[in-house]
Amino acid sequence: MRDRRARTRGLRLARRALIAFGLAFVLLASAAVAAPGDLDPGFGSGGKAVVSFGGTSEEGGAVALQSDGKIVVAGTSNVSRSLQFAVARLTAQGTPDMSFGSGGQSLVSFGFGGSQDFAQAVAVQPDGKIIAAGFDEVAGGNNTSSTPSSA
Fold it and tell me: What is the pTM of this model?
């Protein structure tokens, strides 16, 4: 009789442990926003953020993450037949950071005599300032360009 009680008690404990594990698994799984490798549906629109500077063609060149979770994107935008450095900052949720530039965006033309400025790198300094770097294409050669921004 004692064996039977111990075995029944053991089964009840095992069931409780299994139920507790199942609940913990469900709670942990529901807390995850997206599986590794999947788009995060809480970011931007359906997991994607599109930034348009209004140019006829635009190209991203680099991305940097700020310590506060904001995302900085640098690239090139063809505005009025002139390629310019294009820098945008997004919130961690993938929406434009309206405290940056004009509507979350900034265009820079260096005026070295060329009309093609290409941003190829971006970094965020510890003080929050953004550095975008690239080059300006002119007849007979290229000029290296970089521009700091006041976060």
Answer: 0.68
